[in-house]
Design goal:
Blueprint: H1 17-35, H2 40-59
Length: 67
C-alpha cells in the first residue's frame, strides 16, 4: 500500500492572517540581523517594521510567536 506523506499537502492548507504576519515578522527580523553589521540604517528600518508587526500580533492576542 502507498502511504501519502502529509507534508506534501501542506501547500493546500489555508493559513490564517496571524500565521502570515508571524512569518513576515520572522523574515524581517532575520534580514535585520544579517544587515546589522553592514548597513545599520536598513537594519533599523527592518527592525522597526518587524516590531510593528509584533505589536499588532500582541494586540490580536496571537500567542504562537517564536521570539
Amino acid at each position: 500500500m502507498f502511504k501519502v506523506d502529509d507534508a506534501m499537502f501542506k501547500i493546500f492548507e489555508t493559513r490564517t492572517k496571524e500565521e502570515c504576519m508571524c512569518d513576515k515578522y520572522k523574515q524581517l527580523m532575520h534580514r535585520s540581523y544579517k544587515l546589522a553589521l553592514t548597513d545599520k540604517e536598513e537594519s533599523d528600518r527592518l527592525n522597526d517594521k518587524a516590531r510593528k508587526i509584533l505589536d499588532e500580533l500582541h494586540r490580536m492576542e496571537y500567542d504562537k510567536i517564536d521570539h
